[in-house]
């Protein structure tokens, strides 16, 4: 009996403990509190925030959906259940993992910038963080139209509020104008300067009429275009920037503080490289050096938009050529190694990149179809974590934005003069006239694979057109969709029309 | 955050008839789980993990009927035979689930980021969501039904069966246990990743089961119904044969010899190693179910036993 009582007592005790622990309240330590952050840690957080900008250089979501990059399916390789074909042919659905991933990446960067702003920053630190916040908002409004937002220090359990396309671009502009005087004027290109704010303001004004519309029918207002011009002029007249005579040096491992870089991501060999090695691995064939993934190519029509003497079409970086035989630019035709020996593909055929890049490649050109895109060239001292910095805002883009704004306000002579100034540096022949199509083509030649092509195609009204391997697409594809997970977790967010 | 809440409703009937020779039970159950604890996408902008543990406003409903019968068929001094069988009929469904969560990440050449299962409103947990394979075209390339991926199968069995038979004749006894599951599908990702049509071109083997006649070595792999198979099986899980000495020899008080075999017979049409397999192919911490990916096959073991007491 005694034993039974003892057993019963233990049983009751266990039961009471069991009931006692149904309360899951806990103190959430999900981020630093204000008093844990010192002046020194603000500057560390800001350095981290700059590193997140490397993800803005992502060239997949905003380039594969455009006419300058395509990922052909190569037999068993690169099929991925049609994910790449869906991107290029504008057939994605709201659960497309690449688009979801890009949205998460941009909004995570946005969060880091917002988060930093709750701490005690110096005026310059605050201005840098607000710039980066505006930069993320610009990318999100460009891709998705609506921008979910939180205020600095607000609880994560609150639903983010949502800015419409118009509200978001107006916010970007007012922010950049407000912080301008607190930014430095002359700094390394990986620090936000007044020039970076002017360049992003020029982008914002150039696209404002598009973002204020349904992105199908819009007219460019003279007011916005004159703001583009004045912001570009502020950069040009600073005298701090100039065109590089050696175009491909600007994307090599020897590109630190290029005279064209207005804002760049500072990569350090062996330490961090913001994924820039993927730019060359993705496009190189297995038998090239370094051995690549035999993926991304450009399209024949895009290749043909260049003149042969244009150094942007095809060039070389001497150190790269000496190390591997690899040339720079758009790689068409037979490939060689560093001894000048012609390379072969895995089946023993000549490694000859063909001009055509069918979205489903097959037969003898299964491995070799498509012109390869070698803009950021390998760093042979460390091919996995290279030294190459990534350009986010560049002087040539500023010149072309000014030219476009001049063209859109009827000053085609002024636009032509700027484009010809660029042509003389790039080895291309002088144009006698310029129109919108030529301007779009010029932006493509100068800025291919720098993450602006989708933005440019939308603004020039060409994004839905049929091209190469893509049929004409439905207007809903002008904006990316939101995943069901985002719509479910934020009731303030509405799915974009048509999805 | 709080615990999930489950509400279970059962109705059952137990019976014993024919002088206790036949007994059994029938039970209906319905279990509803609310406030599902889930590692779900946070509302962006959020920290870079992008996920948060939260209670979702969703219900999981498991319901079904369990029937069990147990009979003493023969019962004499020298000979007895008992048979017990139980079978469960199960369904489960995810309700009021406002999001779509992908899981069941597949492996293979050209299969980056390809998933095979979903958590989605109105479907069973881990429903298979795949392209529908329609054979090869004249060039040996896979053709799929229009409209992309579809809900094509359920990894959760509809029936689970257990049978236990025991036989005694004089000093001999024998026990056999069968288990089985029916009405579900298994995705054979071992076949899609290891035994593919492009293998011979690279000097590797494939299997006539997984390479179709005329299939091109350039045929791309896909997450499709081609590799989704019926997972029905019945297994002789355990068979024991024993002999108990009436009068134990030497100094022993009792003695018994036994021979046990496990996993002796498997009845299935599944072409992989074993349909009773579950390799977790979780995506972002969301578990998968019913995917075969290079597992170790179930072993077959034999055990000889001698039990004595002094």
What descriptors fit this protein?
heterodimer, A: 499 residues, alpha+beta, 4-stranded antiparallel β-sheet, two-stranded parallel sheet, 16 helices, 40% helix, globular, B: 310 residues, mainly beta, 9-stranded antiparallel β-sheet, 20 strands
What is the compact description of this entry?
Chain A is an alpha+beta fold and 499 residues long. In chain A, 40% of the residues lie in helices and 7% in strands.
Question: Any overview of this molecule?
Answer:
The complex is a heterodimer of chains A (499) and B (310). Chain A is built from 16 helices and twelve strands. Mean pLDDT of chain A is 92; it is low at 7-21. Chain A has 499 residues and is an alpha+beta fold. In chain A, the strands form five sheets. A four-stranded antiparallel sheet of chain A has the order 5-11-7-6. A two-stranded parallel sheet of chain A has the order 1-10. Chain A has a two-stranded antiparallel sheet with strand order 2-3. Chain A is globular and about 65 Å long. Chain B contains one helix and 20 strands. Chain B is globular and about 75 Å long. Chain B is mostly beta strands and 310 residues long. Chain B has one helix at residues 189-194; strands spanning 5-17, 22-34, 36-41, 51-56, 59-75, 79-95, 101-105, 115-119, 127-130, 133-136, 142-144, 150-153, 159-169, 172-182, 185-188, 228-230, 233-244, 254-268, 291-292, 301-309. The termini of chain B are far apart. The longest helix of chain B has 6 residues, at 189-194. At the A-B interface, α4 and α16 of A face loops of B.
Proportion of β residues of chain B? over 45%
Q: Strand order across the biggest sheet of chain B?
A: 1-2-5-6-13-14-17-18-20
Question: Rg of chain A to the nearest angstrom?
Answer: 26 Å
Q: Strands of the largest sheet of chain A, in order across it?
A: 5-11-7-6
Give the radius of gyration of chain B. 25 Å
Largest interface: A-B, 43 and 40 residues
Q: Which percent range describes the beta-strand content of chain A? A: 5-15%
What oligomeric state do these chains adopt? Answer: heterodimer
Largest sheet of chain B: 9 strands, antiparallel
Helix content of chain B: under 10%
Outline of chain A, from the CA principal axes? globular
Structural class of chain A: alpha+beta
């Amino acid at each position: 009996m005694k034993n039974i009582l003892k057993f019963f007592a233990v049983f009751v005790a266990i039961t009471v403990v069991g009931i006692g622990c149904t309360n899951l309240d806990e103190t959430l330590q999900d981020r630093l509190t204000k008093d844990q952050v010192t002046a020194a840690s603000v500057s560390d957080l800001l350095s981290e925030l700059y590193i997140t900008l490397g993800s803005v250089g992502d060239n997949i979501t905003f380039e594969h959906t455009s006419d300058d990059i395509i990922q052909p399916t190569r037999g068993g390789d690169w099929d991925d259940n049609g994910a790449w074909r869906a991107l290029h042919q504008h057939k994605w659905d709201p659960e497309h993992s690449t688009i979801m991933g890009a949205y998460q990446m941009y909004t995570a960067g946005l969060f880091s910038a917002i988060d930093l702003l709750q701490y005690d920053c110096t005026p310059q630190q605050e201005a840098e963080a607000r710039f980066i916040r505006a930069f993320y908002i610009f990318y999100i409004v460009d891709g998705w139209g609506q921008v979910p937002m939180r205020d600095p220090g607000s609880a994560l359990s609150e639903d983010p509020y949502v800015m419409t396309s118009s509200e978001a671009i107006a916010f970007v502009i007012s922010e950049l104008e407000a912080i301008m005087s607190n930014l430095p004027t002359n700094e390394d290109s990986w620090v936000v300067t007044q020039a970076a704010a002017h360049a992003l303001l020029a982008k914002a004004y150039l696209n404002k009429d598009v973002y204020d519309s349904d992105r199908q029918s819009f007219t460019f207002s003279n007011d916005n275009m004159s703001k583009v011009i004045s912001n570009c002029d502020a950069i040009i007249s600073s005298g701090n920037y100039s065109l590089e005579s050696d175009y491909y040096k600007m994307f090599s491992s020897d590109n630190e503080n290029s005279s064209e870089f207005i804002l760049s991501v500072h990569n350090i060999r062996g330490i961090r490289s913001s994924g820039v090695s993927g730019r060359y691995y993705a496009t190189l064939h297995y038998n090239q050096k370094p051995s690549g993934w035999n993926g991304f190519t450009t399209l024949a029509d895009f290749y043909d938009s260049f003149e042969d003497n244009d150094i942007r079409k095809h060039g070389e970086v001497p150190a790269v050529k000496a190390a591997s035989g690899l040339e720079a630019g758009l790689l068409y035709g037979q490939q060689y190694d560093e001894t000048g020996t012609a390379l072969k593909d895995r089946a023993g055929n000549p490694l000859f990149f063909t001009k055509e890049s069918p979205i489903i490649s097959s037969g003898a050109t299964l491995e070799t179809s498509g012109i390869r895109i070698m803009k950021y060239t390998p760093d042979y001292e460390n091919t996995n974590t290279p030294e190459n910095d990534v350009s986010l805002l560049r002087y040539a883009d500023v010149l072309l934005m000014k030219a476009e704004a001049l063209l859109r306000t009827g000053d085609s002579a002024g636009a032509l003069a700027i484009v010809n100034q660029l042509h003389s540096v790039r080895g291309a022949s002088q144009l006698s006239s310029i129109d919108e199509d030529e301007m779009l083509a010029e932006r493509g030649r100068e800025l291919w694979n720098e993450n602006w092509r989708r933005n440019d195609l939308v603004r020039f009204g060409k994004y839905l057109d049929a091209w190469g391997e893509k049929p004409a697409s439905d207007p809903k594809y002008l904006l990316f969709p939101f995943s069901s997970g985002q719509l479910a977790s934020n009731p303030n967010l509405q799915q974009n029309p048509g999805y | 955050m709080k615990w999930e809440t489950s509400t279970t409703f059962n109705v059952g009937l137990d019976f014993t008839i024919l002088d206790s020779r036949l007994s059994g039970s029938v039970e209906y159950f319905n279990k509803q789980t609310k406030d599902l604890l889930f590692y779900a996408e946070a509302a962006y902008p959020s920290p870079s993990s992008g996920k948060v543990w939260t209670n979702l406003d969703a219900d999981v409903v498991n319901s079904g009927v369990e029937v069990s019968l147990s009979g003493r068929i023969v019962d004499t001094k020298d000979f007895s035979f008992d048979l017990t069988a139980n079978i469960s009929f199960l369904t489960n469904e995810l309700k009021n689930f406002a999001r779509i969560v992908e899981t069941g990440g597949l492996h293979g050449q050209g299969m980056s980021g390809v998933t095979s299962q979903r958590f989605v409103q109105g479907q069973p947990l881990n429903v298979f969501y795949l392209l529908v394979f329609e054979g090869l075209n004249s060039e040996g390339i896979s053709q799929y039904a229009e409209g992309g991926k579809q809900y094509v199968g359920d990894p959760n069995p509809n029936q689970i069966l257990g049978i236990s038979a025991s036989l005694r004749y004089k000093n001999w006894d024998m026990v056999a246990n069968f288990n089985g599951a029916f009405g579900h599908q298994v995705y054979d990702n071992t076949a899609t990743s290891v035994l593919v049509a492009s293998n011979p071109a690279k000097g590797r083997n494939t299997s006539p089961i997984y390479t179709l006649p005329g299939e091109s070595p350039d045929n791309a792999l896909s997450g499709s119904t081609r590799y989704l198979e019926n997972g029905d099986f019945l297994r002789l899980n355990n068979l024991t044969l024993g002999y108990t000495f009436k009068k134990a020899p030497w100094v022993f008080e009792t003695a018994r010899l036994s021979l046990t075999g496990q996993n002796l017979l498997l009845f299935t049409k599944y072409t992989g190693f074993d349909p009773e397999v579950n390799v977790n192919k979780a995506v972002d911490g969301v578990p998968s179910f019913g995917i075969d990916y290079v597992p170790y096959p179930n072993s077959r073991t034999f055990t000889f036993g001698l039990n004595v007491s002094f």
